[in-house]
Amino acid sequence: MLEVKGIENGLVIDHISAGNGLKIFNRLFADTEYPVVLLMNVSSQIIGKKDIIKIENVFDVDLDLLGLIDPRITVNVIKNGALVDKVKARIPKTIKGGLQCQNPRCITHTDDYAIPEFKLLKANGKMEYECSYCEEITVYKL
Ligand SMILES: [Zn+2]
Predict the structure, then answer these.
(1) Cα of 141 to ligand 1 centre, how many Å?
(2) pTM of the model
(3) Which domains are delineated in the chain?
(4) Which value, in Å, is the radius of gyration of the alpha carbons in the chain?
(5) pLDDT above 60: residue 77
(6) For residue 97, how far is its CA from the centre of ligand 1 (angstroms)?
(7) Strand ranges (E), the chain
């Protein structure tokens, strides 16, 4: 297996389904000034193939966004070379902004002051969100 040096201080974002690593990298870390590596298609006993992102000097990450992309992700927090915390990505119960209503006649498309707000209805396999303005269901996809 390809060897990549562990990190001393930072995050290891693990159990990313193969293919999602690049999406996460582009969404969260494309502009970072810190050393970051994206490992793709690493063998995993749990999920077959996975991607891993390691980033130094960063301790905060948007767990909601990770959960929307891939809820199985775990985030390992490393300080002074030791694992100090392990947190799971989460699927947000509500989303404000960042998602467009699927209903073309929804007021949120025409009224600049109507910020789309969504409530999670279902999260097995696909994540379905209900628009608070028109009650149309929108399936979240990146
Ligand atoms: Zn709507």
Answers:
(1) 16
(2) 0.81
(3) 10-88 (3.30.70.140), 94-139 (2.30.30.20)
(4) 17
(5) yes
(6) 12
(7) 10-17, 36-44, 48-56, 74-79, 82-88, 94-96, 117-122, 128-131, 137-139
